[in-house]
C-alpha cells in the first residue's frame, strides 16, 4: 500500500467525516489515541461555557440549573450502550485506579473471606496490579500473577476469589475473550473484574452478555475525554445492595442532602460515587460523547471495529514489509486484537530513540519499556485513516534503516514516556 492507495481507501471510508470533528495539528500523524485521545473541536467552547456561563454567572445554582449534580449518572447512561450495559448501571467518577480499588474491594467482600486469591497477569498495566496488592493486603489475601494467559485456567480453583483482567493488554494489544474467561471464573466460583481502559470506544464490549461482575475503564483514551478525564465503573445489577464499596463518601449515600450522621449506601451503582464530581473534566468527557453519537449514526461500534481492524492489519503488513527485524507483538488473529499494534526491534536498536526520532518527524506513537521493549501505535477509528498507516510505516522504516535515531537528541530520556 502506498500513499495513493491509502488516500483512495480514506476517500471511500464511510466514517471519514468523523475526523473533521477533531482538532489534529497540521503535519502530525497521531497514533497515540490509546494513551491520550485527540481533542474534539466542540470541547474548548463547551468547557469555556461551563466556566464562564455556568460557573461565572450561574455560580452555585448551576449544580441544579446546569445539571452538574447529575453528570456522573448522565455520562454513565450515555456510555452504557458502548459497554453492553443498560442505563442506570454505569457511573462516571474518579480515576481508573480509584474505581478499580472500589470494585476489587467489593468483589472480595462478596466472597466473604471464603476465597482470598486474586488472579491477574504480570503484564497487566502496573496500576492495576499495584491496587490489587493493596486490596489483597487489606483482605489477608494473595495476588497471583500469570506470565501468559494460557496459565490462567489452572489457577481458577477453590481458592480463587477474583479473576482481574484488562480486556485489551496495554503492551501487546492482545484482547481476551471476556465471555469465555468470565464463564470459567464463574464455574470455579470466582468473580470477574474487567478493566476496559483500552477497549471502551474502540472494540465491541458486552458486559451483560458476558455476565461479568464488575468493570472499570478510562475516559481519556479512545473516549477522548481529555487529559485526566474521569473514569467509568459498572457493576452487574445482581450485586446491587450486596456490598459496600470501601470509599463511602457522601455522594454515595442514599440521601446525601439529608446530611445524616449515619452512612447508608445508595442502591446500585450510585454507591460508587464518592465525593463531588470534577465538573469541568466531566464536561470534556460529555462533549466527547457527542462524537460517539455521530459515530452511532454511521454504523456504531461495528463500523468502528471494522475500520480499526482494517487499519491495524494494514499497519502490521506495512511494518513487516518495510521495517527490517521488526517483531510484531500484537496478535494477527483479528478476534484477539484490540485497536493497537506493538512491535519490538532488533537488539542494538534503541526503541526509545526510534520513537523520539519519529515524534520529531510528526509521527506520534509511544514507547513501552520492559522485555521486550515495544513501540506502540494506537489506531483510533474515529479519526485515524489509512494515510496515517502509510506515513507512519514509511517514517519508521527510514529511521531504522538509516539509523538516524542514533543521535543525542533522541537517546536522552524525559520524564513521561
Ligand atoms: C490507562 C490505564 C489506567 C489508567 O489509570 P489512571 O488511574 O487513570 O491513571 C489503568 N489501567 C489500565 C489497564 C490502563 O490502560
TrEMBL record:
SUPFAM superfamilies under this entry? Answer: PLP-dependent transferases
GO cellular component: a single term:
cytoplasm
* Biological process according to GO: anthranilate metabolic process; L-kynurenine catabolic process; L-tryptophan catabolic process to kynurenine; NAD+ biosynthetic process; quinolinate biosynthetic process
Q: Per its UniProt entry, what is the enzyme's top EC class, as one word?
A: hydrolase
Q: Specify which residues bind pyridoxal 5'-phosphate according to the UniProt entry for this protein.
A: 96-97, 125-128, 166, 195, 198, 220, 250, 276
Q: Which Pfam families match?
A: KYNU_C
Catalysed reactions, semicolon-separated: 3-hydroxy-L-kynurenine + H2O = 3-hydroxyanthranilate + L-alanine + H(+); L-kynurenine + H2O = anthranilate + L-alanine + H(+)
Name the keywords, alphabetized.
Hydrolase, Pyridine nucleotide biosynthesis, Pyridoxal phosphate
Instruction: State the Gene Ontology terms under molecular function.
Output: kynureninase activity; pyridoxal phosphate binding
Is the keyword Hydrolase in the record?
A: yes
Entry-annotated residues carrying N6-(pyridoxal phosphate)lysine? 221
- Signal peptide span per the entry? none
Q: What is its EC number?
A: 3.7.1.3
Any idea what job this protein has? Catalyzes the cleavage of L-kynurenine (L-Kyn) and L-3-hydroxykynurenine (L-3OHKyn) into anthranilic acid (AA) and 3-hydroxyanthranilic acid (3-OHAA), respectively.
> What does the record note on quaternary structure?
Homodimer.
Name of the protein in question: Kynureninase
Which organism was this protein described from?
A: Roseateles saccharophilus
Gene encoding it? kynU
Amino acid at each position: 500500500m502506498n500513499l495513493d492507495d491509502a488516500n483512495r481507501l480514506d476517500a471511500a471510508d464511510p466514517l471519514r467525516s468523523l475526523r473533521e470533528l477533531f482538532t489534529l495539528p497540521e503535519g502530525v500523524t497521531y497514533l497515540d489515541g490509546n494513551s491520550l485521545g485527540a481533542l474534539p473541536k466542540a470541547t474548548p467552547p463547551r468547557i469555556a461555557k461551563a466556566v464562564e456561563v455556568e460557573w461565572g454567572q450561574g455560580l452555585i445554582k448551576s449544580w441544579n440549573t446546569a445539571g452538574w449534580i447529575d453528570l456522573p449518572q448522565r455520562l454513565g447512561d450515555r456510555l452504557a450502550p458502548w459497554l453492553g450495559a443498560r442505563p442506570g448501571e454505569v457511573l462516571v467518577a474518579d480515576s481508573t485506579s480509584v474505581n478499580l480499588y472500589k470494585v476489587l474491594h467489593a468483589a472480595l467482600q462478596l466472597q466473604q473471606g471464603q476465597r482470598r486469591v486474586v488472579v491477574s497477569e504480570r503484564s497487566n498495566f502496573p496500576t492495576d496490579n499495584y491496587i490489587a496488592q493493596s486490596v489483597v493486603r487489606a483482605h489477608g489475601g494473595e495476588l497471583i500473577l500469570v506470565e501468559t494467559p494460557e496459565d490462567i485456567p489452572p489457577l481458577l480453583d477453590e481458592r480463587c476469589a477474583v479473576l482481574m483482567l484488562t480486556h485489551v493488554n496495554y503492551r501487546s494489544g492482545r484482547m481476551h475473550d471476556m465471555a469465555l474467561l468470565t464463564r470459567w471464573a464463574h464455574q470455579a466460583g470466582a468473580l470477574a473484574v474487567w478493566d476496559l481502559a483500552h477497549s471502551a470506544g474502540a472494540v465491541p464490549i458486552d458486559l451483560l452478555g458476558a455476565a461479568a461482575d464488575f468493570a472499570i475503564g478510562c475516559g481519556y483514551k479512545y473516549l477522548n475525554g481529555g487529559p485526566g478525564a474521569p473514569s467509568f465503573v459498572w457493576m452487574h445489577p445482581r450485586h446491587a445492595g450486596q456490598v459496600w464499596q470501601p470509599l463511602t463518601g457522601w455522594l454515595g449515600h442514599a440521601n446525601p442532602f439529608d446530611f445524616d450522621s449515619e452512612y447508608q449506601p445508595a442502591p446500585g451503582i450510585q454507591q460508587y460515587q464518592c465525593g463531588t464530581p470534577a465538573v469541568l473534566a466531566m464536561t470534556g468527557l460529555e462533549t466527547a460523547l457527542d462524537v460517539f453519537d455521530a459515530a452511532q449514526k454511521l454504523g456504531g461500534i461495528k463500523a468502528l471495529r471494522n475500520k480499526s481492524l482494517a487499519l491495524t492489519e494494514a499497519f502490521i503488513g506495512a511494518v513487516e514489509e518495510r521495517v527490517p527485524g521488526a517483531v510484531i507483538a500484537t496478535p494477527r488473529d483479528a478476534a484477539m486484537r484490540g485497536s493497537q499494534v506493538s512491535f519490538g526491534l532488533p537488539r542494538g536498536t534503541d526503541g526509545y530513540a526510534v520513537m523520539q526520532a519519529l515524534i520529531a518527524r510528526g509521527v506520534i506513537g509511544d514507547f513501552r519499556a520492559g522485555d521486550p521493549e515495544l513501540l506502540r501505535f494506537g489506531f483510533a477509528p474515529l479519526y485515524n485513516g489509512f494515510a496515517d498507516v502509510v506515513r507512519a510505516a514509511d517514517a519508521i522504516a527510514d529511521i531504522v534503516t538509516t539509523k538516524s535515531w542514533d543521535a543525542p537528541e533522541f537517546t536522552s530520556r524525559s520524564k513521561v514516556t
